[in-house]
Write a structure and sequence with these properties.
Blueprint: H1 3-20, E1 28-30, E2 33-36, H2 40-51, E3 56-60, H3 76-83, H4 98-108, E4 112-115, E5 118-124, E6 129-135, E7 138-144, E8 146-149, H5 156-161, E9 169-171, H6 186-206, H7 215-234, H8 255-258, E10 267-269, E11 275-277, E12 287-291, H9 296-302, E13 309-313, E14 315-316, E15 330-333, E16 339-342, H10 351-359
Parallel strand pairs: 1-7, 2-3, 2-8, 3-4, 8-9, 12-13
Antiparallel strand pairs: 5-6, 6-7, 10-11, 10-14, 12-15, 15-16
Helix pairs in contact: 2-4, 2-6, 6-7
Length: 374
């Protein structure tokens, strides 16, 4: 996001906040989430939070995005994530300039990105986090329900919190994975952190997060960091082309291996239009219940979660060879693309339990589950 563009964002967002009853003052701003750091990770997280319906203010001490060359080869999983948000340049390549690309996306989503704001203090209570920053017009306080440090390996947020880890302060990217060697897939990890955390934190802010959802961010991403670090350390001892050297995903051998994995890329035919990919179905940032056999019982079971989960009926292209989804009748997918339920036998008996686990309590009265465009 260039300087000229950023000048117009705060005024528009201030009007929105006044309409919602949020505080706007000369020396204090109230928001849902404060993100510190406007690098690719912070901006990706800001867009994810906005996609989930949370207000977000990003603070960065820099005056403008630092020029940065095109990122090195990204992991296949990261490419899938970018495609799942419409962030790949045609024809399916990473953006040439990562920071500016994510900055434009964050701004267009409605994130309030404020540059030349240096974080100088933090106050954490049971109800909020207040950041004390110094900006172009002097000191300002920014209060949010949560604060996320995305400010790199030498994180100011981490320095201000010291050895304490307040429950309302979280970390993503290099600020979270401090032991990662330089150049060791840091951008991959950071983008994946942002997409894992964004929808969960937005759910907490909006009040529908089930117990343990936000805690799962730390559990899942710590394990991901350990796996990546182990692979990096083992890399010099692996033969060229040997295990661990590729960036692709392993073949899906069974339905069991689908659980917990990202939904595989597949081209499917939908009732309302042309062929659509599974990654494109994730772009609205909601959960996805993908029905591959046309089972009306699934739509009924998902009805109470219609505001959080899109229901899509689709089938493989005619004449296409069996793909990774072959043999399953339906899958439930989190907003970050991970499969949390499969239906191999045409029944949806365990579906409500999975919906409750990942999307909270359903509404008593709801409209039929909507499609991805609603």
């Amino acid at each position: 996001m260039d300087t000229k563009e950023s000048e117009h964002v705060p005024a528009r967002l201030q009007a929105l906040r006044r309409a919602r009853g949020l505080t706007v003052a000369a020396d204090r701003l109230d928001t849902d989430v404060v993100v510190v750091g406007a690098g690719p990770v912070g901006l990706m997280l800001a867009g994810e939070l906005r996609l989930g319906g949370a207000e977000v203010t990003v603070l960065d001490r820099g005056e403008a995005p630092a020029p940065r060359p095109r990122a090195p080869a990204l992991h296949t999983r990261t490419m899938e994530i970018l495609d799942g948000r419409g962030l790949l340049d045609p024809p399916g390549t990473p953006p040439r300039e990562v920071r500016g690309h994510f900055g434009r996306w964050a701004a267009s989503s409605g994130a309030d990105v404020r540059r030349r704001f240096e974080l100088r203090g933090l106050t954490v209570t049971e109800e909020h986090v207040e950041a004390e920053a110094f900006g172009p017009e002097g000191a300002v306080r920014v209060r949010g329900r949560y604060l996320v440090g995305c400010d790199g390996g030498h994180s100011t947020v981490r320095r201000l919190t010291g050895a304490r880890f307040p429950g309302r302060v979280l970390f993503a990217g290099d600020a979270a994975h401090r032991r990662m060697p330089a150049g060791g897939r840091g951008l991959d990890l950071g983008v994946q952190d942002a997409v894992n955390l964004g929808w969960k934190l937005a759910a907490a802010v909006r009040g529908w997060a089930p117990p343990g959802l936000l805690d799962s961010y730390d559990t899942e991403r710590r394990e991901a960091g350990r796996r990546v670090l182990a692979t990096i350390r083992a890399q010099p001892h692996l033969p060229p082309g040997g295990p661990g050297t590729g960036t692709g995903t392993a073949p899906y051998a069974s339905l069991r291996t689908l659980l917990g994995a990202r939904i595989p890329h597949a081209r499917l035919v939908t009732p309302w239009g042309p062929v659509m990919t599974t990654t494109a179905m994730l772009r609205p940032g909601r959960g996805l219940l993908l029905d591959l056999v046309g089972n009306p019982a699934l739509r009924c079971a998902a009805r109470p979660w219609a505001d959080r989960v899109a229901f899509v009926t689709a089938r493989p292209e005619a004449g296409a060879p069996p793909g990774p989804l072959h043999g399953t009748d339906a899958v439930l997918v989190r907003p970050d693309g991970h499969i949390v339920w499969t239906a191999p036998d045409g029944t949806g008996a365990a579906l409500p339990r999975a919906l409750l686990r990942w999307f909270g309590a359903g509404a008593e009265e709801q409209q039929p589950p909507s499609g991805i465009d609603d």
